[in-house]
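writing this on my phone so excuse typos. first protein, seq and then structure
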Amino acid sequence: MKYRKSEYSSKVYRIPEMCFEDQRLSSFSGLVVIQAFFKRLELKKRLCGCFDHIHGDAIVGLHVVTLLLILHIIMGYRRLREIDRYKDDPVVHRVMGVRRVPDVSTVSRRLKLADAKSIDKLRTVNRELVLDPLVDMGLQRITIDFDGSVLSTSRFAEGTAVGFNKKKKGARSYYPLFCTISQTGQVLDMHHRPGNIHDSNGAQQFIASQIEHVRSVIPGARLESRLDSAFFSDEIVDMLNESRVQFTISVPFERFPDLKQMIESRKRWKKLDGRWSYFETDWSPDCWQQDYRFIFLRQKVKKQRKGPVQLDLFIPHEYGYEFKVIVTNKASSTGNVLRYHNGRGAQENIFGELKTQCQMDYVPVRWLSGNQLYLVSSVLAHNLMRTLQMQILTPRRRSTQNRACLWDFHEVRTMRQHMIQRAGRLTRPNGKLRLTMSGNEATKQMIQKYLDVLESAA
């Protein structure tokens, strides 16, 4: 339909008079979906069980604070002081089941009361929320990846230390170790550590515990894992092999000069494709008790031209090679092993979303237990948004060679913009509670679809 120009244009001269009143308005009407989802999971009851050993006469329990932090992150806020921006929102009150939101100072004081036992219980709840959907899906293969990520802070906080920090040199930081599920892109668990330790610190015990957790819930699934060179050791390799976990681990050259000599003396390389070539051998360092399959790979790369930059698109390139070695107990072809191992790079996307959209890199308080509680809340917010989408979306793919996510997930930022951050008004016509939103058809269909699925599954 064609409109006249006068039907589009409008002259505006006057700024309206401002008036701020309590009209039961909400900026986060889409949280009604989160309310239905939390109710189905009985999340508040689960969180309450994590702090039942902490006795006191406080009006605001730690489970309320934890639920508030999860909502705080889902809504897109970062600093604790930003709680003041939505503390009067009626939909937030209904999701939390409270008449008023705790003040910033109250939240900060309550975070100090968290202890190691409550953090362990929270981690258990997180594992349950991640593994329960996998049980219903009946997955035959589960890929668990391990890596650390630096969480920096510009101030002093208990448990932080100055360590390797590529982006913020000299800053104090934490360096937790994470276990992720590649099929769902969720964080199964985390091992909190200061920032001045090596990647492998406490890794063997943590990896063994995660294998045990997954096996106890899904005993029939085949487990596999991918790790970088920081985790290369005979203890971890033997432990994974004895646990019947298929693994690939990058091998560090600097610790084994024999590997360099084997590559330099090699004359014939088998061609994998136009970019990769390889050879294999059963080998182990002298101190090891058992030989394993070592795959030597070289990748054809363009050498950097030093000198003045020439603006000519047809300059010929000189090619060289980069090398890497992978140790594995997989019996599949070299190409499959390489593609599988390179797929672990998707874990960096999970860390990136956790830091930029779930505020994982924020250190809110000076106390270790409070910062650990905030970290678990960030992980829970990310995992819950993934689980919510798994209720609606159908898997787009089967298991791929690089173990990509089975779903095409929307980022938390997209879910926030499209569904959660929607204006609305709570009213009670004829005594019946009603949430009125704008008549946007796309938003209506999205929210109604989530509510219908959650109601039918309850």
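second protein below, same order as before
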Amino acid sequence: RSVSAFLLNRSSDLDLVVPVYNTEKYLTKCLDSCVNQDGEHSDYEIVIINDGTKDNALPIAEDFAKKYKNIVVFSQENAGLSAARNKGLSLTQGDYVWFVDSDDWIEPDSVKILVEKMKNNPDVICIQGREDGSTKVRNEIPETVKSGAEIVMLNTWVDHCVPFYVMKRDFLTRNNLH
């Protein structure tokens, strides 16, 4: 499916952007976790950005796109992780964007929980994570509620790891956060 055809049939509120570069070892686990979510695939779209990968990650991504109608793959010459995320952001149209690294995976109820949290219309949703096999939680979230501007502009991010934040697309574009 072409990117333009994909973008014309949007119905989701959440877009997962997965930048891919030389992660064939991890990509299947990542994408399996993205498609094996509680809830409907119509709740979210997955935009895979092939950043000029030199391994077999692209065929893996393309196979997933053939199997799942909520996945599209866009290829570009290698420009780095930030450029791949920015390209993904430019292709999204959902209300929220989650940048999921291609060597990570997400829990099966993640999208369902996020869709519920999005009903409160926050600028940023902070999430927690842990390393494989570890019980240590990264991004311990304080019990306070802060505006998106406070989180980003006042440098109060708990952990600066981008995948720990699901952000309102409008918040990113309105504040020129790329």
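The chain is about 35% helix and 20% strand. thats all i got for now
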